[in-house]
Amino acid sequence: MPTVYVKEDTIHDAEAVKKAYKPTHPGLFEVVHAEGSFNSELVASKSFKKGDAICTIEGTTPGPKKYTSVQVSKDLHIELNSDLVFLNHSCNPSVSLDTDKMQLIAVVDLHKGDPLTFFYPSSEWEMDQAFECRCGADQCQGSVQGAKFLSSEVMSRYFVTSHIQQLLNERDQKA
User: Its domain of life (predicted)?
Assistant: First the structure.
């Protein structure tokens, strides 16, 4: 059975967390821990070319929909149980979380130290905890609630998992 990886939401002593940190994918990416709530991020440990498979997503466990889970089908969520839980959202993402192939894919050329971010609605139909986006991208969506709340035109700008595309098609056929 895989190890359950717990994401610490609020860090009061970043140095202590950094000392205790054991990366799950050494040499590929690492967590940069920052004090405060939801301030940590996942960054590349080396360069990747657009289209590179950065890693295989493995060691996951099924679980209920919650803010740390990832939707992998119309009605199934998983916990990533790895540093991947620190992938932050961006409306201008650097990676795709391809839950069909269970791979993390670079969608732009990445350099060592670049943040690894993905577009949450690419896998999430309806977020467990919606939030206001502050990514600063030119086409920032503002509110991140899930694909259900975005037009198919907006969603066509991004990599989208097959279950999200299916749900978008079903929604649009009813309209």
Answer: Eukaryota
Counted domains in the chain: 1
The band of 1, judged by pLDDT with boundaries at 50, 70 and 90, is very low
For the chain, the C-alpha Rg in angstroms (whole number) is 16
Range of the domain at 153: 10-174
Q: What is the CATH number of the domain that holds 102?
A: 2.170.270.10
- The DSSP symbol for 30 reads E
Q: Answer yes or no: is 99 within a domain.
A: yes
Token look-up 């990416």 returns 29
Indicate the pLDDT class of residue 2, thresholds 50, 70 and 90.
very low
Work out the number of other CB atoms within 10 angstroms of the CB of residue 14: 15
